[in-house]
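Person: I have long wanted to understand how a fold can be written as tokens. Underneath my words sits a plain record pairing an amino acid chain with its backbone structure tokens. Those tokens are not coordinates but codes from a learned vocabulary of shapes. I should like you to check that the lines agree and flag anything odd. The protein I mean follows directly.
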Amino acid sequence: MRVVELSEKTWPAQERLFGPRGAAEGCWCMYFRLPNADFMRGKGEPNRRAARKLARSSEPVGLLAMEGDDAIGWVAVAPRSVYRRLDRSKVAAPPDPDEDLTGVWSVTCFFIHRTARRKGVGAELLQAAIKYATKKGAKVIEAYPVDTKGGKASSGELYHGTLSMFLDAGFMLVEHRGVRRALVRKPVG
């Protein structure tokens, strides 16, 4: 397995990985980037076009885990500032509302092909995301994973990643947010 950045060249692999549903219900990993009304209007083809436009740009978007020419996994990692929804999220709210978030990057989403699940692909993508964000100038990387200690989580929840995976990668638990979610951070710069 190798990990590559999403780009115009690697877009066809992501498109095949996400399939006609755009990973989940026409999302195309645009949920955190758009206000709710825009996201809902864009479900499906408009979100696919927006994602492809990002792939063609030089903006950081995310990484693909590849086996041969096929993507088997995806992680979204970019500066927190591009994820507009995080500003209104109780789960993603910074511990200090006056904190300068310059240099904070976020890992918002994982998508692992059903045939590659439970094989460590997510953990490898997370390690690659840490290296990628650090190389691009991140000072802190944060995420909003699901705590699976209380029982099994649905695949619909697991796109955030699991708390144990982030803790194993050296992230610190800032605090639990609600019953099953957490804010984690890793200083890198």
